[in-house]
Amino acid sequence: MTEYVFYYKDILVGGCELLIEKISRQIIKEGFRVKILCRTIDESMRKRFEQSGVMICQLHDWESNKELGKFISTDQEVRVITFFWEDFVRLYSLKRRSMKTILYAVHFQVLAIGANCRFPLVKKILKSVGARSLFKLLQSKRILCMDEQTIRYTQNYFQKKYLNDASMYQIARVPINIVTVSDSQLERRAQEPKLNILAIARADFPFKGYLLGLIDFIEKLENKDKIHLDIVSYGSDIDKLKNKIKALDAETKNLVTLHGKTDYDALEQYYERAKLYIGMGTTILDAAQRGIISIPVAPYTEKVLVDKFFHEDYRILAVDEEDADHILNLWEAVGGLSSEEYLELSEKTRKIAIENYSETKTTEKILNIFNEIKYDKFSWKIFMFQLVREVQSLLKGNDKRSER
Asked: Each residue of 158-184: pLDDT tens digit?
């Protein structure tokens, strides 16, 4: 039996993990076996995966190819889905018989090979060879992009004409679990006089810095009547978020509630009372399919920079900063809606999300890709990335020793 493997280092509670869950469930329905290779996993997510029939395999030594190889079958076809360039290179280089590996770029910077390298010469090599490698992989259909922003960012980063052909890029949109929403729920939200704002994101700054900017925005509003902001967040930078709220004046502090780590199913209580969602990525889809008017924001800034509502362009789940403007205009537009106008846009938002982000369409795209591509084979360019990866590890080790 063909086996599908998702390779993801640390399984937390987030958008990519939920994407893996949704696709896994559909693949299992098609009669295939699904396995996740990870180092750590959140217990609530473990339960969700196991209830769906997914096998969880934890690697104690994440860097060991010997241990990794034990979990890759050699007597059946194995189809591996990776989410980061380094992971793709590692799996592709295993050279296992009857193995196919693809890279699903669910973050807009994933294909910017070498962008985060701290060593100038190594970065230059990675970018140069990476552009050609990416071109070959796009031609062989081993790359999937989550949206148009990922494609634009990749093209702008490399500045190579041969990467500008949009037809080379394949988009597999992030899927959603369609939830049931009654007409009475939509009507109740539309008639709610209070503007309840919701933002859900890990405390990961500067990537999700808009959470901090949103608090600043609320604090500076002249008219704070009938508004409330719910933030659901946890993560390595949560203390910064807590301190930001703690420093607010008494009036504003009463308008902001920070909720800690919350299981996915328990988020429903916050969606139920939200009238406006502000955020990025898959949470935009979760809000939009419930009929909540949603505003995608720009990442990597502590301002709330936006472009347009989700219902105005379903392709935008995060905003390119150069296209962005301050949130005030969209904020005032929502505040000025009558209940009838809100209901109309609410229904439109829900319809657009469901029509364009079906989990069956995304899974079908992935299955078709694997049916078309050939088995992994040795590549000098990919092998070179493995060597550079090891050199970087040595350089980092030397850096740490010199700091002691």
From this structure: 999 999 998 999 999 998 888 999 999
